[in-house]
Every structure is written in C-alpha cells, then in structure tokens.
C-alpha cells in the first residue's frame, strides 16, 4: 500500500511539470501573437496617418488659395506654420496638425520663379517623416495635386523657396514638369535621404 502511494505521488509531480511547460509554451505563443498584432496595428496607423496628411494638404491648399484669391500675392506669417490660419478660422483646425509630429504643418510664401518679384505661390512643410512615409507621400496623390515638391532635412528652412530651383529632389516644377526620376523604382528609394525621422517634405502650390 505504501509503495502504491509513492508511485502515485511521483506521477503527480510529473503531471505538474508538464503543465508548467505547457503554460510556458502558451505564454510564448501569446507573446508572438501580441508582437504580430502590434506590428500590424503600427502599420495600419501609419497608413492612416499618410492618408490624413494627403487629405490635409489638399484641404489646406484649397483653403489658402481661397483666402488669398483677391490678393495679388500670398502674405507671409510670423510663425511659419498654418496655426495662424487655424486660429483665425481661415482653415479648419482639424486639418492643420501633422499627425507625425502633432504640431502644425509648416507654411511659407514662395516665388514660382526665381526672377519673380511677387510671392505668387506658397509651400507647406511636412517634417519628421521617416523614409517609408516620405517615399509614399511624394509618389502618391500629392504628385498630381502639387505644383512643386522637394525633400530636405528636418530642421531646414522652407522660406524663400522658388519652384524652379532644385532642392534635394524636385519632382515637379513650373518649367520642366515632372522629374522622370520619379518613375524609376531604384531612384525612388533614394529620394528621401534620411532613413530616420528626419525628412522634411516641401510641397508648393500657386
């Protein structure tokens, strides 16, 4: 009777060990699933941010063109951002914020040609874009909507832009049209120079 009890006791210990191993395996599987879900969610949020930016650029540019429709030129602002227009209700505040930075999009007046005397254009800046987001934005719908697109390092000044002077890359300008490099997949990968969140996309409208 005593031997049988000991045998059963050892059997219970073995069962406990297997149960613990199964729990550890289950935790590992759940961790892998959670990591996959987090990655997928991150990509989904990034895609939504890019869509929001594209919509914002269209809405802001149309609103600013309407604001200045009766003037001969665009007028610079002291803050170099669209926040002043949002504060004055000239544009909807909901489209003034860059979802990548949670700060207002940059703004400056611009000359369409370097020889112009009046600022008949303006530029909007999207800063702190990583390389993937930057490439997606400059090859997406903005290419058709904008009159000028260039990319520079975040922290650079978007003031004094002219649409016929090359930046890091000019995709569109008033004299040469669309830069054909945009259709070369190998070059598109190099359009945004920074692999980190240091790309500043400058988009011009007139």
From TrEMBL:
Keyword ATP-binding: no
Keywords: Membrane, Transmembrane, Transmembrane helix
InterPro entries found in the cross-reference section: N_methyl_site (IPR012902), Pilin-like (IPR045584)
Protein name (database record): Type II secretion system protein
Gene3D superfamilies named in the record: TcpA-like pilin
Keyword match Cytoplasm: no
Top-level division of the source organism's lineage: Bacteria
Membrane-spanning intervals of the chain: 20-41
Organism: Shewanella psychropiezotolerans
